TrEMBL record, chain A:
Belongs to the peptidase M48 family. It comes from Pseudoalteromonas luteoviolacea. The chain crosses the membrane at residues 16-35. It comes from the Bacteria. This is Peptidase M48.
Automatic annotation (TrEMBL), chain B:
It comes from Pseudoalteromonas luteoviolacea. Keywords: Membrane, Transmembrane, Transmembrane helix. The chain crosses the membrane at residues 41-58, 65-92. This is TM2 domain-containing protein. The keyword Transmembrane applies. It comes from the Bacteria. The keyword Transmembrane applies.
Amino acid sequence: MNSIESRVKAQQQKQLLWICSTALLIMALAGYKFYTHGLPYLSEKIAAAIPASIYTTVDKNTLESLDDSEFEQSQLSETKQQALRSLFLSLLNEETTSERQFKLEFRNWDGKANAMALADGTIVITDAMVNLASEQQELSAVLLHELGHVEHNHVMESIVSSSIVFAGLTLTLGDVSALADVILQGAVVSINQSYSRQAELEADHYASEQLIALYGNAQAMQSILAKLAEEYPDETSWLSTHPSFEDRIKKIESE
Amino acid sequence: MDDSSLREQEEALREGISSLSPEARKRYYQLEEQLVKDPDTYAVLNYFFAAGLHHFYLGKIVRGLINFILMLVGLITFAIGGWVLIVLVIVIELPQLFKSQKIVRKHNIDVMEGVINELNREQS
């Protein structure tokens, strides 16, 4: 090949290599930064600006959806439910600063011990969790943990976060027909799967602080986590994205 | 770099091409196909993260690298003021997006002039 032609070819290859490697590196870094910093920041700000009526609607739709697909009616006696509601209200009256519409719901979920917070302050606790947390302080620990999610607005932030990602991907990929389902799907996905490890630790921290204020120590938090670890040795958490029970107990001990 | 001066340079380029031997002219057109850059591609690479890709596209490796490093540092230190660096890079680089037609046209003229000179040197 002639000298000019070979030089041009080498030059073209070099330019292409620069463009591709630079673009990949910048995209990876920008994506990482957006995911770790931009997305949480935007989610927090957007979630805080969402009107209260939306929170209520999301709660209602999410609970209906879970009732249709996952939950069964609670088998707990009315007396037991009433006693737990009184405990729940006492935790709210003294410790809660949020303006959400708090209420406690009881469900059976395939015999699994679990509790979850919805966006507007609805806390769902399963029969198995009530039976597992035999002491009042342990029940307080579970409820306060869920109240921690509400206080930190984790649920709505998680919904907003998954909606941003979903909407971004949908717009990028060109299929806008799915956009209408974003909020509800985001809600269900976030409730079922997307509590981040950081959010769990924050909720644990909140619960521990409140327990210390109420009972003088956070022993109940550690004991309910230990019971859950014993009950579900193969699972790392109440929900799949939670940190392991051992990590959470260690974290509480270190605080 | 106004339009009339570019037209004059293109006219000179055409004269240069016609002065080449048939064999050299054939090579010129083959090289032109590979070397001529597209202003739309340049514009897209410019606004794509403003990371200097458009400079790499025109073969300005050093300028592209400076752009890229500034963007990289800006992204890494975004939370502690790096965003200022990113805004600065965008403010400097973005105007080129609106001048992409002229910039690429000038680049193409310069590159092809160089090719004609080299072919002439080889001829002689």
